[in-house]
Design a protein that fits this description.
Layout: H1 2-15, E1 17-27, E2 31-35, E3 44-49, E4 53-60, E5 63-67, E6 73-77, E7 81-82, E8 86-89, E9 94-97, E10 106-110, E11 115-121, E12 126-130, E13 136-140, E14 144-145
Antiparallel strand pairs: 1-4, 1-7, 2-3, 4-5, 5-6, 8-11, 8-14, 9-10, 11-12, 12-13
Amino acid sequence: MTLSRSCASVLLMLACGTVSAFEFRSVGQPSVVLYDTPSAKGVKRYVAPRGMPLEIVARYGDWVKVRDAEGELSWTEARGLVAQRNVVVRLAAARVRASPDDSAAVVMTADKGVLLELIDTLGTGWAQVRHRDGIVGFVRITDVWGN
């Protein structure tokens, strides 16, 4: 029994297409179910809401293995994800600034768990983001997850 499970695990890993660079997507439907296996017959782990950023770590047919902001790995159908990128705030109070500079004016403070649309990553340790209320600014990459 253990040998057959080991063989099945190895075959599943070989069949999975791996993703070499960080690839992030956001939940595009009102919500998607995250499973423990790449099958709707698997155990439902939880429901991910619209906009939630997920990192794709592997592909298996129409399914993707994803990592959430907490580091948990699950499976979901790829069709439920969209290319629009969102990030989620990691800190208790992330400062969103008018320009990518620590001395720039703070345009808003975002609490932990707040979802922000990722407009651009600047390669300088900053990302340009938009809040759902329309506020646009810059946040330190280390203060958010999903980029």
